[in-house]
Design goal:
The longest helix has 26 residues. The strands form seven sheets. Strands 12, 15, 17, 18, 19, 21, 22 and 23 form an eight-stranded mixed β-sheet that branches. A six-stranded parallel β-sheet has the order 10-6-5-4-1-11, with helices on both faces. Strands 2-3 form a two-stranded parallel ribbon. It has 24 helices and 24 strands. By secondary structure, it is of the alpha/beta class.
């Protein structure tokens, strides 16, 4: 039933595929022409004195998406952002940094990575001011304010609000509605804290899952209170009291020393100009990055390849538009090409994933293990989450870095199917079948497991869980018992995960790159090229090849495909229901999407 609905949605989206093909082809041609034009024309010189403005509402992503490659999306990759801020800190023409955090949509781990980049910039002695019209107007502002607290001064519009209220994790539970619909969940899991099946089987959280998620939320709040206290020079206890009594008006925020100045954006910009001996231009950081002189890398320059593994883990090739996926074919191909390229001396595997297919996770695990065994160091940088299958693929790396807030672990397994016979009966839909092979209906949504099939399914969960635990133990050099104590499907913050041996060090992409350089015996002063892998040109060619081959799902194209986008808003829920019916065990965290503060 679910698959039929998904099929119909895809049919509607497919009507627009011809238009999408034309847009992609035109974008590819325009991008090629623009590159040639840029190479033949002089870049506009930068001002003699400037303040750089980073607007976080534009977003920061893992790597260059197809839309970015085609020039259809503005935003940063973490690699480009780090390189831009590093260059700006050393540039005498740069007088300061303006962070526009209103509208920022960052996870807590992403905010921690950005705070670290800002802290490095502050070491140059140049002022950093953060501005927001409102920190969560009528809603969440905790992570936005936490990000702003990295600055030397925090400004807020006088009409704004400070929604510093803490964190709330909400888990949708469909057990009651599925029962009303006559849908029978035939699901099971390994690990008492593995909460993904509770989405379909319960109307409230079990005690173990509730306890585990509460621990995660408390860890996040502890980190936020500690870090804000350090920057605002008050105690962590005071910060906790402030959070418990929020939200606040702008005036109340100023009275509690949470905001330094009340003013408008133009007034913040003017503050940078006061006392300056020359005209100070406010320039978007993106313009600075585009116009600044770039390092030239001779052929054969030692390279650190940054391979991205983002989104749900799945077998095969990933989609080029829409939400990212960690597709096994694509990730393995990236590792294979990096292994074969003699200029690549080390790999940073950037992971942001809630898990997914156990088989796909194992295939990627093999690629990581093979590259490490061949002698090329692999350093993992875990972002918002590396949970379940997302942690499975990290296990064989030489070193694992995470932010203190990174959702980590969830070493457990879940799987099964939803039997929809009762629902179909209520809808007066008949289903009949013939089959050859006694177990041909093993994964059918219209037939329950019999005793022998249920026993076989249980054996599959046992095998997958045992394999997961063993591979973590091997990769992390831990005893099986040590892994089991951290496993059972428990999700940890990166801070708590480090205490259990699941994480080596705290840090983001920059720290992971530095460790990769060390492991590859590349001197810190030597010229090293750090680049997303495969390169943008290779990904763009691959995109065009897939479009021509009819492999691309184009529903994510902006503007032209708004109708299709509205239709596929239903897809995540339908996919989740479908996943519960899919053959094989699943390695998924109980909270699949990056959790925002609330």
């Amino acid at each position: 039933m679910v698959r039929i609905i998904l099929f119909l949605l895809k049919c509607v989206v497919g009507v627009l595929a011809v238009v999408g093909l034309a847009v992609v082809a035109a974008g590819f041609l325009a991008q090629t022409i623009w590159k040639e034009f840029e190479s033949r024309t002089l870049v506009e010189p930068l001002p003699d004195k400037m303040v750089l403005a980073l607007d976080l509402s534009e977003g920061v992503a893992g790597g260059d998406s197809p839309l970015t490659l085609l020039g259809l999306h503005e935003g940063w990759s973490w690699l480009a952002l780090g390189q831009a801020l590093e260059a700006a800190a050393k540039d005498d023409r740069v007088a300061g940094l303006l962070l526009k955090v209103g509208g920022a949509d960052l996870s807590l781990a992403e905010a921690q990575e950005l705070r670290s980049l800002v802290a490095d910039f502050r070491q140059s002695g140049k002022p950093v001011r953060a501005f927001a019209e409102s920190f969560g107007e009528g809603g969440d502002g905790t992570v936005q304010y936490y990000t702003a607290a990295a600055a030397d001064e925090i400004w807020m519009q006088p009409s704004g609000e400070l929604g510093l209220t803490g964190f709330r994790l909400e888990v949708p539970l469909f057990g009651g509605v599925l029962d009303d619909w006559g849908v029978l969940p035939r699901l099971d899991h390994r690990g008492v804290y593995k909460g993904i099946t509770e989405t379909f089987t319960r109307e409230d959280l079990s005690t173990p899952v509730r306890t585990n998620l509460q621990q995660l939320a408390e860890s996040w709040l502890r980190q936020v209170a500690r870090d804000i206290a350090t920057r605002r020079k008050i105690s962590a206890t005071q910060v906790r009291e402030i959070i418990d009594n929020g939200p606040y008006s702008a005036e109340e925020a100023g009275a509690r020393t949470l905001v330094d100045k009340l003013g408008y954006l133009d007034e913040v910009e003017q503050a940078f100009r006061r006392g300056a001996t020359a005209d100070v231009h406010v320039l978007p950081l993106a313009d600075y990055e585009r116009r600044r002189a770039k390092t030239s890398y001779p052929d054969g320059t030692p390279t650190i390849a940054v391979i991205h593994g983002e989104g749900g883990v799945m077998l095969g090739k990933g989609q080029e538009f829409g939400d990212p996926t960690m597709a096994s074919d694509d990730v393995i191909a990236a590792f294979d090409s990096a292994l074969a390229d003699r200029s690549v001396k080390a790999i940073v595997f950037r992971i942001d994933s809630p898990g997914g297919s156990a088989v796909a996770s194992d295939a990627i695990w093999r690629a990581v293990d093979r590259v490490r065994t061949a002698g090329k160091p692999v350093v993992v940088s875990m972002m918002t989450m590396a949970a379940s299958g997302g942690y499975y693929v990290a296990a064989p790396a030489n070193r694992i870095f995470a932010q203190p807030a990174t959702i980590t672990g969830s070493i457990g397994v879940a799987g099964g199917k939803l039997v929809v016979t009762g629902l179909l009966r209520e809808l007066n839909v008949g289903v009949d079948s013939v089959q050859a092979g006694r177990n041909a209906g093993f994964w059918s949504a219209t037939e329950d497991f019999d005793d022998a099939q249920w026993k076989a399914f249980q054996a599959s969960l046992d095998r997958t869980y045992d394999d997961f635990v063993d591979k973590v133990a091997k990769g992390r050099n831990l005893s099986r018992q040590a892994v089991l104590s951290a496993a059972e499907g428990q999700v940890w913050s990166g801070e708590d995960g480090q205490a259990r041996g699941l994480v080596d060090s705290f840090g983001g992409l920059r720290e992971a790159v530095a460790e990769a350089r060390t492991l590859a015996f590349l001197p810190q002063a030597s010229l090293v090229r750090v680049t997303d892998w495969p390169s943008g040109d290779v990904r763009l060619r691959r995109l065009v090849d897939r479009v021509v081959g009819g492999e691309v799902d184009v529903h994510g194209l902006p503007a032209l495909l708004r109708l299709a986008d509205r239709l596929v808003m239903l897809e995540p829920l339908l996919r989740r229901l479908e996943a519960a019916q899919a053959p094989g065990a699943r390695l998924e965290a109980p909270v699949r999407a990056p959790v925002r503060s609330e």
